[in-house]
Prior knowledge:
The protein is α/β, with parallel strands linked by helices. Helices cover 33% and strands 22% of the residues.
Amino acid sequence: MNKIVAKEHFSEKVFKLEIEAPLIAKARKAGHFVIVRVGEKGERMPLTIAGADPVKGTITLVVQEVGLSSTRLCNLQVGDSITDVVGPLGQATHIENYGTVVCAGGGVGVAPMLPIIQALKAAGNRVISVLAGRTKELIILEEEVRKSSDEVIIMTDDGSYGTKGLVTEGVESIIKREKVDKCFAIGPAIMMKFVCLLTKKYNIPTDVSLNTIMVDGTGMCGACRITVGGKTKFVCVDGPEFDGHQVDFDEMLKRMGAFKPIEREEMHKLESAETVEADANGRNAAWREELRKSMKPKERTAIERVKMNELDPVYRSHNRKEEVNQGLTEEQALTEAKRCLDCANPSCMTGCPVSIDIPAFIKNIECGEFLEAAKVLKQTSALPAVCGRVCPQEKQCESHCIHLKMGKPAVAIGYLERFAADYERESGHISIPHLAEKNGMKVAVIGSGPAGLSFAGDMAKLGYEVTVFEALHEIGGVLKYGIPEFRLPNKIVDVEIENLGKMGVTFIKDCIVGKTVSVKQLEEEGYKGIFVASGAGLPNFMNIPGENSINIMSSNEYLTRVNLMDAASEDSDTPVTFGKRVAVIGGGNTAMDSVRTAIRLGAERAMIIYRRSEEEMPARIEEVKHAKEEGVEFLTLHNPIEYIADEQGRVKQVTLQKMELGEPDASGRRSPVAIPGATETIDIDMAIVSVGVSPNPIVPKSIEGLELGRKGTIAVNENMQSSISTIYAGGDIVRGGATVILAMGDGRRAAAAMHQQLTQGL
């Protein structure tokens, strides 16, 4: 998909690309655009569709080399695939029979103008097209335009073709000789501005097509906002076409120039492309090429996926501190690594929120270079041993593996990540990523969960003095209090934290920002930036009768008592209830952690009660499998509606409403609907409610002027920046609920953005 099937060199730095995109080709209309991305770390670029062939299943783009991203696109050849092509986006051009229409296209703007010209002519208009460029060589698609135009006027700055002059002179010459009912203008922003000033003088309605700065392209990020008629509009969803007389072009031109200094600096990436290509771990490195040739792809895909070694279910169900998954042997790791095809465009990386170079670390494993594999992981991940254990790889990196398209199991990326990280730790040769020279700037991190640790690691690499403030008495946040040791041993987390300490990160425990110290105090102490990763706070309850009975607690409370406080040990002062008939309400990973913990604390009957079917459960497939093996019962399509307590106020029963699946809700999952009159009551002596959490309110409420989102989350932009420019945020405090790896991705994105902000003036 997204393969380039034809390429034509129009002129210096201008190329026409025909791209395989059958769904877009079928749905596209005049005026629509696509978002294109080249490379896993490429920029999202908006490009208007110049043509489409629904039969061939292709779309046509005309691209000019301007900056780094467009140059990378133009450097691709026939047969290469573009990483991402998303669309069609935006509103289609409004076409009707206006009468006489002038279509002014400047430079590569002629390409998106062409389908509009064709549609206008088909609607019965008299179409006069004005094509403009600096020189004859920059006049494109003239023949195609002439086929759908009643007249074509060519304007060149140097007079090398057509008439010497600007596009506005060509347009005005038409206006002066005959009545013009409508004008369309597409080209550089400055050209469209002056065409609109001209047509406004003659009171001729004029539409322009705008491709401003975009990141998302679907209305999420707000990067493409412009002012039209005094109101903020978003080009990606409200446009790209607008009434040109209403557009604030001066504002738009300023915004379009926002990243020009950075773009100029980044062009060196292309100049040093040969160096990058020759990187020791790069795909074009000699050892990688030799490795690919050592086995045929069919031989690699024929290898069966390895199975993780696990503790016996009966044994492990009575052991809460011994890890269930035992890891891969060296032989297993070498075998699994051979399954990786070392794809030219590794789709697996698109599913990784922290952008791990997946093929590079796997190929190092295949060569037996296990320590080198760990180094590759550490380039982008602060917690590889953690991620190898708790990340939902089946929904992220592995879900994009090319093996799946061949009907084969995905490469076990998570298993291999864990193997490399564990091998390094056990070898005693733990590496520290390259650290830039100290820059003298201090940054603060509020919270030591995955988002905070990831941010801290990246900022330490960039030369900052990083201090992490943790409210609890242990560093690690949810990694310590929320995830049981049979899934993630504390010793694993501790080693990862020690590595950050070796990188220069300072940790301060028992310090509640917003209570112990304020953000204002931190700023007064010289912290130039603050990253809020304070995580989950108040647990959600269902607000049903009897829910406040004794022995009904949240999963947060239950797991914190057992995991952080070690309440189940005889020498612990913290109490915990040892239920015999335990009901856990919910279907996520936290619910699985809770019910499997209850089994280990002696529950004779442990149940998952979930209002949807098993297929809709958000928990990892592996966690559900392990729970079933350990004897957990699954009461799906059941929902608690009341708890019944005994004379002492202790829960003794729960009444369940039987459910069926109705129409999908906003999340896309089918909504559970109560079956009238279908209830049952079961005996329990303990209930653990695991239906989500609300963000920790302490930090947000303590910062004056901080904009909050829905349900008390911190509102941030696409760079994780809050309404206060020096404060960034990520993880649960932004998302309301996030996986470890998504939180880490937030931390990395915030670190990159804060670094850019803090160094802009240097």
